[in-house]
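testing teh design pipeline on a random one, pls ignore if ur not involved
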């Protein structure tokens, strides 16, 4: 997905955003799987108080109480996902489109179920920003393609978050 398309979709989705949770999901020792966490780390100290950043790693359900307490209008989950795209390419998916995805994942609780629960408890709009990984072997470095995507996405989010 080209940046302008991603930017346009995110801007449209963020219309009316008052409080936004941005949650990075992934395994910090599985190379590109950590891209969601790295994006959150890139945003730390640079966003307004209207944005709550969470490094969820592989257990986003452990942060349900903190997410609910923030009372968000929007929740953006950032994660690596096998999308059939080139490494580093990304896709924005709204919760309404998640019914096309099966309810299984590498996470303890499948993201679709996690998102459905948060929708019921918070009433927030939920979206997923998914990035195609190149390598998910053990290691702490991102591949060059995903590292560039991480930087590009972090800069994009800094420019559009409230």
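output:
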């Amino acid at each position: 997905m080209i940046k302008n398309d991603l930017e346009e979709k995110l801007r449209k989705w963020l219309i009316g955003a008052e409080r936004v949770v941005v949650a990075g999901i992934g395994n910090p020792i599985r190379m590109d799987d950590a891209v969601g966490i790295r994006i959150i780390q890139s945003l730390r100290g640079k966003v307004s108080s209207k944005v709550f950043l969470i490094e969820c790693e592989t257990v986003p359900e452990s942060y349900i109480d903190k997410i609910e307490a923030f009372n968000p209008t929007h929740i953006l989950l950032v994660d690596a996902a096998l999308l059939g795209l080139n490494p580093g390419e990304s896709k924005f998916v709204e919760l309404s489109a998640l019914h096309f995805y099966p309810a299984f994942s590498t996470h303890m609780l499948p993201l679709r179920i996690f998102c459905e629960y948060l929708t019921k408890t918070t009433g927030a709009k939920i979206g997923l920003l998914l990035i195609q990984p190149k390598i998910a072997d053990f290691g702490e470095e991102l591949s060059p393609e995903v590292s560039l995507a991480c930087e590009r996405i972090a800069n994009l989010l800094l420019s559009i978050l409230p």
